[in-house]
Specification:
Elements lengths: L1 H17 L2 H14 L11 H8 L3 H13 L3 E2 L8 E2 L20 E2 H12 L4 E7 L4 H15 L7 E9 L9 E2 L5 H30 L2 E9 L5 E6 L3 E6 L3 E7 L2 E7 L6 E6 L4 H19 L3 E2 L5
Parallel strand pairs: 4-5, 5-7
Antiparallel strand pairs: 1-2, 3-12, 4-8, 6-11, 7-13, 8-9, 9-12, 10-11
Helix pairs in contact: 2-4, 3-4, 5-6, 6-7
Length: about 300
């Protein structure tokens, strides 16, 4: 009897490791489109779905988020079970993660839900290359809140961030009048450091409050990045361009004509491993590119003025 039980457990463990969140999403999508799950009907709880498919609850949550991004489900992030959309396929609430092939969203809309989804993993791995980390700092807020509320329970969090070095002449933001370069550079540096310090503090606090193994590391780039890149758990790459424009901005008490890019409004393109050869290759090459910068030409970064 003990041997038989061990065999059953072994088969269950194998099922858990073999079935992906995309396979769960495919099955639930088929049930919705065939009418087995009707518009307005509540889905089974995540716990029941995890038992049915033999997967971890994190895989169920990712599957439900895919269907939510396709407008087939609503209320996925609520405490109660999700609901089949009244009119599957119709536009839903803004700010949901876009599935593969969907239109890009502004960084401040598209990044937070995907970062929150990534924090459902037991080991969260998040890499970012950006100008100031303002979008990432804002996106971290919701998963940190859910951790404090007991809704997310990662055991380990590793975050690596590449930012421009304080020792370079920034390509942007930069003043049209070169005589103001020093003042603008000091303003950018203070902003870069402040955002990085908030990001690090909010994550490292989870060590003492929840016993999570947290590591946050910054390194400096010897150039101004023309793009921003976020890598989530080795499975997603989110990419946006910094489009430089000329305009008038207020710096302290002074109005200044300058070249700058509004990173928080940049269109964020999402790529996911397993969504097709092109997506998978983009994620893998983005990881390779980030690691190469991290291991070669970047240098130690200290968040001080």
């Amino acid at each position: 009897m003990e041997t038989e039980n061990a065999s059953v457990k072994g088969r269950q463990g194998a099922a858990r490791s073999q079935r992906s969140h995309r396979e769960v999403a495919d099955e639930l999508r088929a049930r919705i489109r065939s009418g087995v799950l009707r518009p307005g009907q509540r889905m089974p709880t995540q716990a029941r779905l995890a038992d049915e498919f033999g997967v971890e609850r994190g895989a169920v949550r990712r599957a439900l988020r895919i269907l939510e991004s396709e407008r087939l489900l609503t209320n996925v992030s609520k405490g109660s079970p999700a609901t089949v959309a009244g009119q599957p396929g119709q536009p839903g609430p803004p700010g949901l993660p876009a599935g593969p092939g969907a239109a890009p969203q502004p960084s401040m809309a598209g990044l937070p839900p995907r970062v929150t989804e990534a924090f459902a993993a037991e080991h969260v791995q998040l890499d970012a290359l950006c100008l100031t980390a303002v979008s990432l700092t804002a996106a971290i807020g919701e998963p940190v809140r859910q951790i404090h509320a007991g809704q997310l329970k990662p055991a380990k969090i590793d975050v690596r961030v590449l930012l421009p070095s304080r020792d370079i002449d920034l390509a942007f933001p930069s003043p049209v009048d070169a005589s103001a370069t020093g003042r603008l550079q000091r303003r950018w540096l203070a902003h870069r450091n402040a955002q990085g310090q908030v990001l690090r503090h909010n994550l490292l606090t989870l060590r003492s409050t929840h016993g999570i193994d947290v590591h946050v590391t910054f390194r400096a780039l010897p150039f101004t990045p023309p793009v921003k890149l976020y890598l989530l758990n080795g499975s997603q790459a989110l990419f946006a361009y910094y489009t430089v424009q000329r305009g008038e901005q207020t710096v302290g008490q002074e109005s200044m004509d300058m070249y700058d890019a509004e990173g928080t409004r940049s269109a964020l393109f999402a790529f996911e491993r397993g969504a097709g050869p092109r997506d998978t290759t983009f994620v893998d090459q983005s990881r390779r590119w980030f690691d190469a910068l991290w291991d070669t030409i970047s240098s130690e970064l200290v968040l001080t003025s």
